[in-house]
Structure formats: C-alpha cells, structure tokens
Amino acid sequence: MSRVNTVLGPIPAEELGVVAVHEHIGYGMPGSELDTKWWKTPEQRYEETVPKLRKFREYGGGTFVDVTGICNGRDIDYYKSLSAKTGVHIVACTGFVGGDTALPFFERAGVDYLTRQFVHEITVGIGDTGSKAGVIKVGVSRGGRMTELDKRIYRAAARAAVTTGVPILTHLAIDPEPAVAVFEEEGLPLDRVLFGHADDGVNADSTPAAWLAGLGGRIGFDTFGYETELEDPPFWARPRQERLDHFLDFVGKGFLDKALVSADANCSPLGWPGVKGHTVNYLFEDLIPDLRGAGLDEPTIRKLLEDNPADFLTIRD
Ligand SMILES: [Zn+2]
Predict the structure, then answer these.
(1) Domains assigned to the chain
(2) pLDDT of residue 1
(3) What angle do CA 220, 242, 213 make, to 5 degrees?
(4) How far away, in angstroms, is 22 Cα from ligand 1 center?
(5) Antiparallel, parallel or unpaired: β 93-95 and 135-139
(6) I need a labelling partner for 230 at 20 to 30 A (CA). Which of 10, 116, 142, 192 fits?
C-alpha cells in the first residue's frame, strides 16, 4: 500500500486530497522563543491557526505539509491536536530550513549523527509523540552559497532518504550544483527531491529550474501569494502576473510532471509579525482561479495539487 506519514499516523497516498506541499503552522528563527516581545499563549496560536485550517478544509484542502525545521518552532503535539480538531492531514518534517537555522548542538554534529537523527524521526518517531516525519527539510543558508554545514545536512538528508524512502524538500535551489552532486554521490534519484522557492522575488533569476527538472528534480513554485500587490509586501515579493507567467512558462516547457505549487504561508508566525493578508488559502482563493483564467483545465490543476504531491510524498520502498 502506498503510504505517507502524517502526524496522526500513516495514510494511503490516495487519501491526501489537495495538498499544500510547503507551508508552516508557525515559523520563527531559532531563539525567537526567548524574546519576550514575541511570546504567544497556546490560545493565541490556536486562535490564529484553527480558522485558516478550517477554511482550508472547507475549500476542499486535504493535506498541509509543515516544513518548519527542527529549530524553527516545530511542535508535533500541537500539530496533532490541530489535525484532530480540523480534519486536515498534517505532515511534519525532520531536518533544518538551512544550516544557518541549526542551533549549535546540531551545527557541531557530524553526518552520521544527523543521519541517525533523521532516520529515527522518520522510522521510530519524533521524540515521544509517536508521530513520524513524512519529509526531510534542507536548505541553503543566507548568503546565496551552500556552506559546509549546509552540505553536511544535505548529505545526511540524502542518506536518510535512501534508507527510508521519504523525500527531501529544499528551502531555496540557488547554487544547486553542490546539492545535485551530494544527491548523486549518495545514490538518491532526483525525483525524490523538491527544489523549492524557484519562484520567489529574490531567487527566481538564479534558480536553474529547467536544468534541475531536466535532471529529474521536482520544482517548487511554492511562494505563491507573496506579491508586490500586498499592502506591506516582504522583500521576497514579486508581481503576481510575473510569477504566474514564470510558472506557466515552466509548465509550457513540458515540465508539468515536475511542478509543485504552494504558498509558504505562516498560520501563526513566531518571532516576527508575518505577512498580512497571506495565508495557505491563497491556493483556493487566487491561484486556482488564476490557473483557470490562464486556460489550464481541471485535470491539469488536479495533477498539480493532488497527483504530483501524492507521488512525491509516497514513501518509496
Ligand atoms: Zn517555508
């Protein structure tokens, strides 16, 4: 049986439904929990998060993939209660958003230690929650080049992916040659990797999406909705039409099979105010209408939001 790990247990891939493949229940830089300015009570976090997940469910959303790394506010017991309360499947990750978000304890760890940690969280569980990770997060540190620590984490992730069959999802796909080299050295087929943030306003130009897709990689157009049209756009925003055109151009080159879409929104940001007016429900409220407006038919839209993520997330035996 094809299966995917969710925080409430493994489910058949056919039950995922519409998938938001790169999202956050709550994301913050490590240490933000120590700054009293940003403290939130559990009730505040619930109040901000539950309506967004309920709406996601009402719109027909099935699965929310939380790719908040180990040190960025990941909170599995909380996810379990959110999933039980809203009926949305939640997939949690192991791994790190980037080397620069790995706290010193992990920064000092070797490849073997990190590999064992990832494999344990995928096959045994995350701490004593009983929940197994369904995806491995890695990423490129700020600065635009992969650091030695980034590469160590990528190698551990690749080994864990080969051992467990769980896929890898990256934060950023700039400077991708070292990443591709690590995956090839470790014998991980590139269709087990989603190269993310190919569409954001800062990195789109330096992400060779067609090259990566040609090698077999999957490409994440996963910052949909961070638009310059927002009231207070973030620095990685991009004009709405420009992003859409970029996406349509990629799909038009024959890479529909390789494309994944998401909004990278925060239900309840930690340590920063977040981006007002942007939620996971951009997918239903704006993206799907835009795709229809651009002439994509329903089977194509279903492929993007259901079939492609199901194929990606299914654990490979
Ligand atoms: Zn993200």
Answers:
(1) 3-313 (3.20.20.140)
(2) 75
(3) 30
(4) 6
(5) parallel
(6) 142
Residue 95 Cα to ligand 1 midpoint, Å, equals 13
- 67 C-alpha to ligand 1 centroid (Å): 6
- CB-based contacts of 215, cutoff 8 Å, min separation 6: 180, 190
- How many other β-carbons are positioned within 10 Å of the β-carbon of residue 124? 10
Tell me, in angstroms, the distance from the centre of ligand 1 to residue 266's CA: 8
CA distance to 119, 146, 197, 249, 259, per residue, from 179 (Å): 20, 8, 15, 25, 19
Pairing type for strands 61-66 and 193-195 reads unpaired
pLDDT digits (tens, 9 = 90+) for 16-64: 999 999 999 999 999 999 999 999 999 999 999 999 999 999 999 999 9
d(CA 168, CA 93): 9
Structure tokens at 259: 């494309």
How far is ligand 1, taken at its centre, from the CA of residue 196, in Å? Answer: 9
The answer to whether 98 and 140 have CB atoms below 8 angstroms apart is: yes
Q: Encode pLDDT of 131-169 as tens digits.
A: 999 999 999 999 989 999 999 999 999 999 999 999 999
Q: What percent of the chain has pLDDT over 70?
A: 100
Prediction pTM value: 0.98
Identify residues whose C-beta is under 5 A from ligand 1, the ion: 264
Give 242: exposed, middle or buried? Use CB within 10 Å, 0-12, 13-18, 19+.
middle
135 C-alpha to ligand 1 centroid (Å): 13
